[in-house]
Amino acid sequence: MRAVQIVNLDGPDRALAPAALPEPEPSHPLTPGAGVVIDVHAAGVSFPELLQTRGQYQLKPPLPFVPGSEVGGVVRSAPGDAVVRPGDRVAAFCMLGGFAEVAVAPAYLTFPLADGLDFAQGAALVLNHHTAHFALALRGRLAAGETVLVHGAAGGVGLAALQVAKGLGARTIGVVSSDEKERVAREAGADEVVRSGGPWKDEAKALTGGAGVDVVLDPVGGERFTDSLRALREGGRAVVVGFTAGAIPEVRVNRLLLNNIEVVGAGWGAYALGRPELCRETGAALDELIAGGFIRPHIGARFPLEQAADAVKLLESRTATGKVVLELRG
């Protein structure tokens, strides 16, 4: 089968190389028995793949290996405990192996793909939207009528968070860096948009009558995190999802004390992968939001498999909107 491997840790230009490999066995490290074997039509490209090309991600398989954590495709075979059957269109989280014509995913992380979504959108669904739902509903305790501010609101996680938040009945404020990213964020459901290069904290407070927002969702990190705490109302929650800016911020805990606010971590993978029932419940919740018209993954760029390095570099450039995908079949 056609595949792309990470063969060294020199960054996306040199680390990613095409390969002809045997098809994978139906076993999977996240499940005790057989996994779901999927003919891959599209594979999602995510920030972890960029980090893996430099050996900077916590998951460090021996070289060479096939990266790619999520796919959209058609089931070739499935174990008896799966809710999908051969021939079904699916969205799946495979953790590794997605940059290939055939991938294997655990049954509890393989979900029927709604008729209104194409395979590329299936490859954009699991990692970002499960993360967003986990971060907002479970960790951030977002309630209908509350206001959530989303950093990186035109990125993969950011757009997913806007869509999930709207589906949960929240008011949304997106933080973006350009006119094009503002357009994308508004199409995803942002009620208001502020610019990351401007006085966004003051603007967010003004939009809430001076009270501050209920929840900040931050996949970016970096220097803006202190202002995220200042943008919260009393009792607000800052939910940390990642650090795409590179710098990991530090918190002066007196700020938490003075305003009775919280900083909450939301590491979906570490928490959810050992809890199959949570994954199934989240999948069902997202299906309801898809059926309600709230969720429609935004595909910002599509590349053929052979251009995987270009796809990963697009993430590195920080110019991508929504999800970048590799398309392997028509």
Order of H and E elements: EHEEEEHEEEEHHEHEHEHEHEHEHHEHE
Q: Briefly note the CATH topology name of the largest domain.
A: Quinone Oxidoreductase, Chain A, domain 1
Distance from first to last alpha carbon: 16 Å
Largest sheet: 7 strands, mixed
DSSP helical segment count: 12
Q: Which CATH first-tier class of the largest domain would you pick?
A: Alpha Beta
Instruction: Quote the average pLDDT.
Output: 95
Radius of gyration: 19 Å
What is the share of helical residues? 25-40%
Instruction: Name the CATH homologous superfamily of the largest domain.
Output: Medium-chain alcohol dehydrogenases, catalytic domain
Number of domains: 2
Strand percentage, roughly?
Answer: 25-35%
Q: What general outline do the C-alpha atoms trace?
A: globular
The CATH architecture of the largest domain is: Alpha-Beta Complex
Please provide a written account of the structure:
By secondary structure, the protein is of the alpha/beta class. It has 2 domains: 2-125 and 297-327, Medium-chain alcohol dehydrogenases, catalytic domain (Quinone Oxidoreductase, Chain A, domain 1, Alpha-Beta Complex); 128-270, Rossmann fold, CATH 3.40.50.720. The protein is 31% helix and 27% strand. The strands form 4 sheets. Strands 5, 6, 7, 8, 9, 16 and 17 form a 7-stranded mixed sheet that branches. A 6-stranded parallel sheet has the order 12-11-10-13-14-15, sandwiched between helices. The two termini are 16 Å apart.
